[in-house]
Design a protein that fits this description.
The chain is an alpha+beta fold. It is built from five helices and six strands. The chain has one domain.
Length: 125
């Protein structure tokens, strides 16, 4: 059976990454600019996909990595953010992008996606 495999593994979209960084944190609403958190991270899949990412503040980025952090504003302990929640939020932001971004930005992201898709090669397993 033949399956697609990316030559580089990474799906990059500078337009989408920029849009993500201009959003408030997905988990605590900390104002932009945000860090660009990829889900799943490089450790699990071996590659990054900009289109599977979400905006997070620095503390929430640590939480997405499995750490417990203390909010300096109120001393509250915040536990790790589980992967199903990260995945749900990443999908929600991808959907939100198409409803709120300009047509030219949507076209650029679509072009990035097609560029990545045509870089796939088919291999026998």
């Amino acid at each position: 059976m033949k399956k697609p495999q990316s030559k580089s593994g990474a799906c990059r979209s500078p337009t989408y990454a920029s849009w993500i960084r201009h959003q408030a944190c997905a988990f605590c609403d900390h104002p932009a600019p945000s860090e660009h958190h990829h889900f799943p991270g490089r450790g699990r899949s071996g590659a990054t996909n900009d289109l599977c990412s979400l905006p997070v503040c620095h503390l929430c980025h640590l939480r997405c990595g499995g750490q417990t952090v203390v909010d300096p504003a109120n001393g509250e302990r915040m536990g790790p953010i589980d992967e199903p929640m990260q995945e749900a939020f990443a999908l929600g932001y991808f959907r939100r992008f198409f409803f709120t971004a300009s047509q030219s930005d949507v076209a650029k992201v679509y072009e990035d996606l097609m560029k990545w898709r045509t870089s796939l090669v088919w291999i026998d397993w």
